[in-house]
Amino acid sequence: MINPTLVEGQMHGAMAMGVGAALSEKIVYDVEGRLLADRFKTYLMPRASDLPTFELVHQVTPSPFTVLGAKGAGEAGVGGAQAAIANAVDDALAPLGATVREFPLNPPAVLRLIRQATA
Amino acid sequence: MIRKRFAYHRPADVTEVIEVLAAEGRDACVLAGGTLVVPELTIGSVQPTAVVDLRSAGLCATLRADDELLSEIAVAYGSAQVRFGYYKLKLCESSWPIATAACAVTVRADGVCTAARLALGGVAAIPVVVPVEDILVGTTIGETELTAVAARAEAAVVTPWSDVLADGTYRRGVAGVVAKRALSRTTLPTPP
Q1: CB–CB of B2/B42 below 8 Å?
Q2: Interface size, chain A vs chain B, as Cβ–Cβ contacts under 8 Å
Q3: Cα separation, B33 vs B55, whole angstroms
Q4: In sequence order, what DSSP letters do the residues of B99-131 get, joined into one string?
Q5: Which of A37, B20, B134, B172 fits A28 for a cystine, CB–CB 3.0-4.6 Å?
Q6: Do B180 and B86 contact (CB within 8 A), yes or no?
């Protein structure tokens, strides 16, 4: 890595985005098409205290297509973080017979899944 | 930009505020600081026919004289036998509270409860007082009483509040647990 600080910063941000999408971020409109989740008290992005400490492990593979083997590093952690949370919730609810099928998995959504499975 | 027109009032004192509100009725909207109301007017989620600005009526003014400073706020101690419990449920750190519960119980030296009050917040348009005295008074609060209070709290939420963060079914569904957690905090050992 040419600049590990920047690469890791990108990854931290990406994982936070993935956690937010998986657990709390939701764009909600009313029946007339007005945006209801219009501020950060209603469109819920994760804050530092919502997140665990991240530990990164890098698999460095030089690109065969560039002169120095360099390539860009962006927000590659979004999908992984989302999938990890979906799988974790699905695994936790599996004994009840519930299956996770949509995001975000916020508390009302998870309680609904539990109630449906145990009704 | 605020697209809908409204009458703008700047009453001079409290009496005039009341007169304006009485004349305008339910379609009037009170502007105190503006933190919530101005964005709501901008996006059109409230569309009042009149806005009553309290800032000119001296209601937001300070009583502090030039040579004064607020250095402390003293609150009288309640009885040492009164224990308080509070619990707030949020969806995550940035969320508005979804359901809250506050309670005060008076506990005699022998551990028996002699008075109890519990109220829920966030679950309805106004706070919901849950009658718990008949469950708690005369008992040493334990798991049986906590469970009974949880059931009573859930039943007390008759018209639950719904908004963008959580619907009424969820709020009523968690009211019992939130009440139980607030009450169980009064049974914790008092720190030395």
Answers
A1: yes
A2: 52
A3: 8
A4: EEEEEEEEE-TTS-EEEEEEEEESSSSS-EEE-
A5: A37
A6: no
A73-99 b/e (C-beta count within 10 Å ≥ 16 → b): beeebbeebbeebbeebeeebeeeebe
**ipTM value:** 0.86
User: Do B95 and A50 make contact, defined as CB atoms within 8 angstroms?
Assistant: no
Given A36, A49, A107, which is nearest B93 (Cβ)?
A: A49
**Distance between CA atoms of B145 and B183, rounded to whole angstroms?**
10
- Summarised one tens digit per residue, pLDDT across range B133-178 is 999 999 999 999 999 999 999 999 999 999 999 999 999 999 999 9
Query: Among candidates B146, B76, B143, which has minimal Cα distance to B116?
Result: B146
Measured between beta carbons, which residues in chain A are less than 8 angstroms from residue B173?
111, 115
Where do we find the tokens 């519930």? A98
- Percentage of residues in chain B having pLDDT higher than 70: 95
A29 close to B (CB below 8 A): no
Search chain A and give the residue with CA nearest B168: A108
- Nearest alpha carbon to residue A99 among A79, A80, A114: A114
Give pLDDT, residue B191. Answer: 58
- Comparing CB atoms, the residue among B43, B91, B93 nearest residue A106 is B91
Number of neighbours of residue B99 by Cβ within 10 angstroms? 28
Asked if pLDDT for residue B43 goes beyond 90, the answer is no
Q: Nearest-5° angle of CA A22, CA A25, CA A31?
A: 125
